[in-house]
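pinned: reference chain
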Amino acid sequence: MSQITINIDIENSGGVTSTLKKVVAFEADVEPGRESVLLDQMIFDLRAELLTGTHWASLPPAPQFAQISNQTISPMQPMDMINAWNAEGIWQEIQNSYLQVAHSLARARAYKDVEPRGVSIQEAYYCHSQKMSALNLGVFFLVKIQDLVVRLLFESFGSEMIKVDQSDPDWPKQLTLDNAKKGLKRLCRLSLDQRSSDELAAILKMLEAPVNAASQVIVVRYRNCLAHRVMPSVDYAELAPVLQDRAGTPVCDAIGNLIGTSWELCIRPLAPPDYTFDELYGAIVEYLGYVISMLNQLKQMPRFD
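pinned: its structure tokens
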């Protein structure tokens, strides 16, 4: 049994000092030479934690999407009530996801701030890994918010918007943004009420808001790599896997006839990293602002108010 005793003295600007003590006991022994590594990591975590709140405050603000709806419902059938109740539940999940995005992005920015500069990746790896884990989690939840908007529309309009077989356990896979747009356009064509048509057209326009972000291409490309492809390198090109060119370069004779193919092989990255953290973070934060703008507009509609 080993233990680490931690004493912290906090002196605020007003001269007030607080003293805290914690004892951490564990089964294994600390390997000789690892003591300084543990201390460095604790200091990195402490400094990052102190900065996280500041960075959260600088992100695009979002209202309380999970507030109870003010709309009055006059149900004609049971599904009218279910649609309204489920829509409120999805707003709650959107709120939860936004909080996860904001916390993750602020934490990523904080670890970037405390990450050592001008050192090898081995020395910076702890902060870099914490930074990228938080950033990637934020990207996943940011994309999830847009998926939840489709679910919100489905729960609000019911199966009239997207026809699904709910006896199939994988039916939520049909709730894609493309299917939602097609369904809304179809409902708009079939509508005999001008007010309903205007509402549907307004929702379609709101769904396009994130596409207008200049950063949309970067965010979508990064998210696709994160979920389905080889991870792009961020800040450190040496962390990217080196994949050889499969197509090769055609080799032709003097008169232009193809006589073979050559491949140039490399064993280490030849280019800078695919992204810098600052570039990627700035793009994600800008895109988040457009997503929040879309959510604000939806929330202000009588259907969702």
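why pinned: The radius of gyration is 26 Å. Helices lie at 35-57, 78-114, 121-157, 177-190, 194-207, 216-228, 277-299.
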